[in-house]
Amino acid sequence: MNINPGESTIELKQQLHSQILFDPELEKHSSSEQFLLSIYNSVQTSIFIVDVLENGDFCYVALNPTHERWIGISSENLKGKKPEDILSPIDAAKVRQHYVDCVRFGKTISYEQCLQFQGVATWWSTTLTPLRDANSRIYRLIGTSSNITPVKQVAQAKEIQTAQEQLLEAIAQWIRESLDLDTLLNQLVKEVRHCLRCDRILVYQLQPDETGVVIAESTITADSFLKQKFPDPSLIAKYQERSGRGCIQIVEDIYTAGLHPSQVNLLESFPVRANLVVPIWSQQQLWGLITAQHCHKPHKWQQIEIDLLKQLATQIGIAVHQAELHKQVQDLKTQLELQKQQHQAQLQQAQNFQALVRRITEQIRDHQPETQVMQTATQELTQLLQLESCYIEIYSACGDQATVTYEYTTTTPQYQGLTRKIADFPEVYQPLLAKQHWQSLEIVPGWHPKLLVLIQLACPIFDNQGILGNLWLSRPTQEMFDEWEISLVQQIANECAIALRQAKLNSTTQAQIQELEQQERLKNEFMRTLSQELRTPITSISLAAQTLESVLTPEGILDIEIVPQLLQILHNECGRESKLINDLMRLTYLEAEPDSPTLIAIDLQTWLPPIVESFRELTHCQRQKLHLNIDHELPPIETDITDLERIVTELLSYACKYTPSGEAITVSAGLTQDAVQLKINNSGLEISASKLPRIFEPFYRLMKNDPWTYSGTGLEMALVQKMVKHLGGSINVESADSQTTFLIKFPKPTTL
Q: Positive or negative CA dihedral for 142, 147, 149, 150?
């Protein structure tokens, strides 16, 4: 409101004008007054006159013709009425306030205001001038108004256009930055309502049942329709039919738009007075509606407002398509992640299966008992596949029945020891006997709060020699075993087949071993019996030879040359046969299960030289060199003196027997890191690699022609090997570079 700074009294021309307008004796005035009246009637500016009553109230007096045309009210109908009589309460309050301001200030004021006349909003630029009487009381207001609606519409259009451009740019930015459709729509409806200066903006999304759900809302009213369904599906269907032809709905006033009474009643209940509805299309499909509403008064929708809502609908369609694409991408990511997790789970399960197969293979390799292998397979399969039970059944020898021999279960054992006749279950055992797996789904009988379903899988256990049994798995789920799981289970079944077959072979082998041991025991018993039986006649022959010699000596028969020779041969052969029988009995004893040796501590430094020296005369006669080397720090050892003496004696005899003249025999005793070592070495003799393994065979002779005609039983080296082993030691023979060495090792004494 603007207040003019001039005096409150009006000019003479204004006084004259008012007198012309309201003097009852108008015809008595001059022609100039008639001229002013003609101006009043013909001027294009709206002029109205308001009386200020004694009580401070206001009432209208007159309008000029121009103002009558603008507001559609005649001067006669206006005269005597108050602002509330011709204007809405809101507009009347605004007008009355301007009148009060003019009277209070006592000066001319100017202002702009928007008033509703006959339901049409118009903008006015108004000037109010107060008139005073002789007592300086303001008794009348003269108002002049200009209709500035077109100017205001242009300014408003520019403002809306600017806001529209900013809003569209902001929406485009939101679409680029946000893939959340709900967030975007909530921001959009708020900004659109401010831009259009309307009461409510709604976004409907059409549903498959042809109803609409409000998914975004911005309103100045207390009522909210967010998340509510459009109450009348038929209206959506009708609009969908219209919008299918590219139409929009423009309602400036629901009472004058020719709407169906049911739709008018519906809009009244919201309430809605003016309504603008634009369809939202996405990928050539009607996705929803965007609605702008004025709740309490009509509104003439401007083309720029309609264009803005159409552009917004297009942007929403783009955002919807982008959100759907984003959702598809997210779904693909989720699906890929799920597939990745499933692949990782399968990979982990495969690794677990391979570890199980490896453990079973190692148990089979290490000849673990069949029971342990089967228990490992059933238990770990139950844990890996989350089974209720896992068991193994074995076919009988005739193949007409199968018995459960191994079972692992998370509940009470149900199948252990169960025997099925094959003929009673042909649908089960037919594929299994054909080396194919069998799978079934069974509903657990009886009443249960929830339906219990049991999946059973059977894989045959077979190899190239035949079918041995079946591996059964039970899982309380409705998901069947997939091909990948079946393949892994069949691998375990194949390992079980190896274990079962190996167990059968081991059983057969064990039986054969026991039979061989029995035969060996019988043989040893026979040898002992034979030795005893041979010893008796040999002893008798020897005694007879001695008796014969004693008888023949007095008679002088011994003087006959042949008789002493025959007697000597008889004595020698009896002695040789007696030694053979003794060696055979000793060897038989050592090959059986001999008693532990009687151990006595001996000092090799004092014990060994006499034994070696006993061969000094023999080696001298055979022109052989004999040497003895003993480590001075050699500790005492615990051994059986008789057996050790026999070992050293036999090895020295063997060396003397095969060592040529001029060569040397060396006996050494020393200490290594973990053993006491005896070595008997002779030069001039080299045994080929093919003959070395046979040195310790019974009755094996290295040379057919004995260079020293050294007789023996042929069991000496076999006895040496058995006795060394009986004493807890080891013996080896090496031969190279015309040298042959027998190497004996005994464990180092623990007292060291």
A: negative
- C-alpha–C-alpha distance, residues 184 and 167, integer Å: 12
DSSP-based three-state secondary structure for 293? strand
Q: Which residue has the higher pLDDT, 155 or 668?
A: 668
Give the list of residues 6+ apart from residue 41 with CB closer than 8 angstroms, or none.
Answer: 64, 65
Nearest to 410 by CA among 369, 382, 373: 382
Least-confidence region, from 366-370, 599-603, 615-619: 366-370
Mean pLDDT in the chain? 81
Q: Which long-range contacts (CB under 8 A, 24 or more apart) does 15-22 make?
A: 18/131, 18/140, 18/142, 21/49, 21/62, 22/49, 22/61, 22/62
**The pLDDT of residue 98:** 92
Please name the residues in contact with 570: beta carbons below 8 A apart, sequence gap of 6 or more.
Answer: 541, 545
Decide: 255 and 297 in contact? Cβ < 8 Å: no
449 residue type, one letter: P
By three-state DSSP, how is residue 190 classified?
Answer: helix
Please give the Cα distance from 535 to 581 (Å, whole number): 7
Mean pLDDT lowest among 55-69, 74-88, 462-476, 560-574 = 560-574
Query: Which two structure tokens, joined as six digits, stand for 689?
Result: 């690699």
659 near 712, Cβ under 8 Å? no
Residue 11 predicted with pLDDT over 90: no
User: What is the Cα–Cα distance from 624 to 658, expressed in whole angstroms?
Assistant: 11
Rounded to 5 degrees, φ, ψ at 310 are -65, -45
**What DSSP line would sit under 648-698, residue for residue?**
HHHHHHHHHHHPPTT-EEEEEEEE-SSEEEEEEEEES----TTTGGGTTST
The pair of structure tokens assigned to 308 is 């803005």
The pLDDT of residue 742 is above 90:
yes
Among 158, 71, 197, 78, smallest CA distance to 122 is for 71
Q: What is the mean pLDDT of residues 432-438?
A: 93
Q: Is the pLDDT of residue 110 over 90?
A: yes
Q: At what angle do helices 303-365 and 181-196 cross, to 10 degrees?
A: 170
